[in-house]
Design a protein that fits this description.
The chain has 283 residues and is mostly helical. It has eight helices and four strands, in the order H-H-E-E-H-E-H-H-E-H-H-H. The protein is 68% helix and 4% strand. A hairpin with a 2-residue loop joins strand 1 (61-62) and strand 2 (65-66). Helix 2 (40-49) packs across helix 7, helix 4 crosses helix 5 and helix 5 runs antiparallel to helix 6.
Length: 283
Amino acid sequence: MTQMENQPFRQKLQSILRFLIPAAAILAFAAWMVLSPEGALGKLDAIGYAVCHRIDARSFQIEDRQLPLCARCTGEFYAAGAGLLFQVFVSGKKSRLPSRGVIAVLVLFFLAFGIDGGNSYLYLLKQTSKGALDNIPNLYIPNNILRLFTGSGMGIALAAVLYPVVNQTLWRSLDTRPALEWRSLGGLIGIIVAINLLILTDSLIVLYPIAYLSALGTLSLLVIVFAILWIMIMRQDNTFEHPRQLWLPLLAGFTLAMLMLLSIDLFRLQFTGTWGGFPGMSG
């Protein structure tokens, strides 16, 4: 098929998708709303349920109710969402990856996340298994404070890498400056540290918004990743000039994200029989 013959086909396909994708989005969202637990926090739990172990003892609590994600995932996904939003206002269409120095800091965040996560997992094995596993060495006793801070560091790193990649994929006209520089990185870290300290007060005024921010941050990341995948499949890379042109890819990303969440939720519910943490893991 020549380029001229291909053009009418693409236009026809776009017209069809403008109808099909909104319909699919409504159906996917409706199915998820019906099948997920009742109440606003129940819906947020269903988002966390697809990506997090949701072990009660490793989660912050709103009174006697755990947040939608564990402490580590709460930090990771709220910080990633906040980091992306921060760069929208601070960085605009800047599309270059950070400098080597900033990347080095992000690598440290990644290593801290991996070390604390590995140590925490080994500690969980010791608590839930008997026999030889009792002798697994630990670097230190894990706790939710470290989980929150190492998770939020990882969230900053995810946002710092994902944002310029998204810009490189979307825009026809690129701003080739680094999306995150030392000054903006310092401002973002300061904001996240301040929010973490507020979370540690266990104030309901803080924890309720964080429950929403962490779950919606999770959903936002999935929507963005699936939207970028959609754009690449449709060969629309570097064709956009204004954010209002992104509604169809974002809606496609939302549809795919909801289908993924729904599939994982149903599989895990069938496997475990509970919307809570994995049975037998309470460490």
